Amino acid sequence: xxxxxxxxxxxxxxxRHIEGGSFTEIYRSExxxxxxxxxxxxxxxxxxxxxIYFLLEQGQFSALHRISSxxxxxxxxxxxxxxxxxxxxxxxxxxxxGNDPLNAHNTFQCVIRAGSWFGSRPANGVAYSLVGCTVSPxxxxxxxQLADRAALIKQFPQYSELITSLTHxxxxxx
Length: 174
Hints:
Elements: H1 5-11, E1 15-16, E2 22-28, E3 32-33, E4 46-47, E5 50-57, E6 62-66, E7 70-78, E8 81-86, E9 92-97, E10 106-107, E11 109-112, E12 117-122, E13 128-136, E14 145-146, H2 149-155, H3 160-165
Parallel strand pairs: 9-10
Antiparallel strand pairs: 1-2, 2-5, 3-4, 5-13, 6-12, 6-14, 7-11, 7-13, 8-9, 8-12
């Protein structure tokens, strides 16, 4: 029997995340990359890497957003998590994170490319998904943009249903 989502929230001291779900930062490199050596998409110096635990329960989703870094997702516990990635070229990729070796679609890790729009939610019938996310160069809210539903649908009308399901009305933009 799986421990409950609340077990992990308490044990890992997770708190609510702006995108949805619960998280805690578990690592932030002390090594700093100076802004002049980073691509222009970064708004300042960055830690070499950061890492979080992230938990989504059934009915929750991580709202579509993008960052300036690649983000590696790691599956830890629970059921399959679907990470939706709309790449810069407009291609939609669905990453299914899980530990079901009989399911050819499951993988333990995936990488979301810098600049892609992405969001996630547990697969149907899954109580929760506990994953980790590692970002390099490290995550900073200065490089974070939460999707504006109307603007993203205008850009990618072929994904309007998905975009509507993974955004909140009245999203702010950073």
